[in-house]
Amino acid sequence: MASSLNRFRQIPTFGVDTIRRFSNNVSAMKKLAARDFEDMLQCCIPAFEGLLPDHEANERLVTLLYHTAEWHALAKLRMHTEQTLSSLERSTAEFGRLLRQFRDFTAEKYVTYETPRELEARQRHAAATAASSAQPRAPITRRRMVLNLNTYKFHALGDYAAQIRRFGTTDGYSTQIVSVYVLYLSRVNF
């Protein structure tokens, strides 16, 4: 895993603000903005390629990452036609199939745990809770993490195309536009 994090650091910047330089440890980045997640998504295939020792699992991972980027690109188009929305619907179905396939055949093979930062946060919370109670505290160990597709975020993916038809493109209600405008105003001393 450490090698993939180092690979992110080796990816060069692109444009003024298209792809920004990654930190030394991408998994420890705090307070990420949407653009940070987008940069990671656009650069993750070369960073994760060869990460898993099993060739078939590695192919599944790279394919899933590619379809994730494809789905994201279709979902954030600023202008849609019926054809692009149909492409988004097909991409959503394929993305869901690949996610379930990854969960069933790849994620089950690998035991994953929470990051050290997540463990430290749980330990701090437990210490604060224990300080207010008289009960002795059991030692806290790293929690096993599993891929859970039974969440609202995954469930709502199927509604994107219908919502774009109903309300318009997602750029109309993004906070990124506001952020850029605030930066512009600060530069012109408004």
From TrEMBL:
Q: Which domain of life is it from?
A: Eukaryota
Record protein name field: Uncharacterized protein
